[in-house]
Amino acid sequence: MSAEVREAVADLLADRVTPGALEAAERDGWAAGVWEPLHAGGFTTVGVPESAGGAGGSVAEACAVLEAAGAAAAPVPVAETGLLAGRLLASAGLALPDGPVTTGTGSVTLSDGTLTGRLARVPWASASSRIAVLADGPDGPVVAVIDPGTTSISAGHNLAGEPRETVDLDGVVPETTAPAPADAREALARRGALARAAQIAGAARRVLAVTVTYTGERVQFGRPVSRFPAVADHLVRIAEQAEMAAMAARSAAVGAGPDGEPADLDVAAAAAVASEAAGLVAAAAHQATGAMGVTREFALGVLTRRLWSWRDEWGGERAWSTRLGHTLAAGGPEALWPTLARGVR
Amino acid sequence: MIFDPTPLSADEEALREEVRTFLAETLPDGFRPGLGLGGRHDPEFTRALAERGWVGMAIPTAYGGAGASTVRRFVVIEELLAAGAPIAAHWIAERQSAPAFLRFGTEEQRQWFLPRIAAGECWFSLGMSEPDAGSDLASVRTTATPVEGGWRVSGTKVWTTNAHLNHFAAMLCRTTPQGEGDRHAGLSQLIVDLSADGVHVSPIPLIDGEEHVNEVVLDGVFVPDERVLGEVGQGWAQVTAELAHERSGPDRYLSILGLYRAFLDVHGRHPDAVTAAAVGRVGARLWTIRQLSLAVARSLDQGEAPAVEASLVKDIGTTFEQQVVETLRDAAGGEIDPGGPTMFDKLLAECVLNAPTWTLRGGTTEVLRGIAAKALTRGGR
Questions:
Q1: CATH code 1.10.10.10 for B10-122
Q2: Cβ contact (<8 Å) for B377 and A323?
Q3: pTM to 2 decimals?
Q4: Quick check: A235 and A275 in contact, CB under 8 A?
């Protein structure tokens, strides 16, 4: 099932995420020509239950969409609308608003119906129709739905030119609020890290294709540079890291089961592996493609700038490795192997 | 291609539990784990394992095996390697030789060798490398000359693990002198009885001081016709098939499990952040690599032949193993003390001295990457 979803999204995006569309998205902060067909096809809300207004489907299927979106470098908030905000809203019994929806992290409180605090580096905040804010209410965590037009937003971007904005919420009155599950904050962070791992896996795979093609065509010393063992070595290491990232992300996603949430240990492992892979893949690809690879016109940069950004969003390799290490250590030496060998179910 | 993760079935999980229980009952308290496939040579352990049907599991029942799937065998060997169990006696016979007899052997060879391998009573060494033939296997110079009823084999093999303890080795020999044309032609595999006249085994001490690796001089050793494995002249195709098939198993990432467990033992359940990061870094990659290796095993059961993926997984696994030693050494701090009081001290010393071999045995990193690169650039994946 996941494979079909991946292919469908890849097909849909193939002609739409063009170099021109990517440049325009960086300039304008939005890519309607990419978003609209994805949204119309129901791909932006995979993983959000139908009862909450989503397209339904498992976390694994949502991650299949994200892998394909990552491979295409699609400059739209697919992860945010579905797996992140969409599931957050659903967990609080709220329906998904139409259009792009985003969410973020930060210290926010809700008191007397008014929000205080700010969200940092929110993806596509001003382009979204609504923002799902996880706030601390008087009786525990709450999800608040707000119109970005009612907030004060300051611009910001990641290395790939994707909007990452600061949203000031002081005095904002939400449209609706609902109590969130006690572990909503941790669950959101897990889905955030898993989403980025899936996107990294897709982008890494695409970097391999771009690099193999280029080094097979670029002739130096009378032969394609990919025939030189030192260059071929880069290709193999990119392939290995792409396999690692994909297996890690897919294992964590499949482990969530048909309608569950991904497990903490699985996400920690996947995020640590994918974050590390992102840097290794980007470095090897740039070395293999030489000066051409670092030009704005070549297809590599849109991918490597995303790899360098996504690996740290929702926590990088040290954060997740440390978390995983504490979990494994707490289980003691005898439980170490059985825990790691539990695999996917 | 990229593999999808594969779950273990309830049956496969139950088998895993059986093996764990067996190991808990069999290995003594304070057991010093071997480094994965570098586990010790223990005939008694091998026979106990064979009694449970866990040696030569993939051998069909008609030949005394369990007729088990690749994944069931994967489950068993993964547990054995994770425990550092003493598997050396049967390791090559069951991983390499039994599948070779099944693919290339005569009916008579299968009936003679396979039940003995499955019983844990017939142990094999490899017979490929020579002083002048390492990664370039086609340059082997050991020759087999036809004589009445068989062959006379002369030459020198090296790095022959446990040749002083094992019964047989499948020796790659030149049966036709190398001509102008295909240098891979004219090679054959002959099963040499290591106790035969003319076989001289002497140890090659390695940097860890151990003497389990040998030089084997073959001085006109007689091998009867019925001990030729497969077709005369097809040795190259046979050994490359053997290597590709068995590259990506759990032996490629579990050499460090004992060290990893011992590290956790030293640092307790509430380590500082730096220590936890090291534990997590190793754990994250181990969790992922075993899922890759399991996926290769599953695809073999589904009739696929993922030779390139297997090469990649081996390279990923063995490179990982070496990184683990460095990550844990750095996190532990201090000097390496082979005579130190903890299991971690002892295993760290052993790992540092053995780690260089992990990316050499079964095909060096450079050779594997060469194979993988060819497939990648041909668009073969």
A1: no
A2: no
A3: 0.96
A4: no
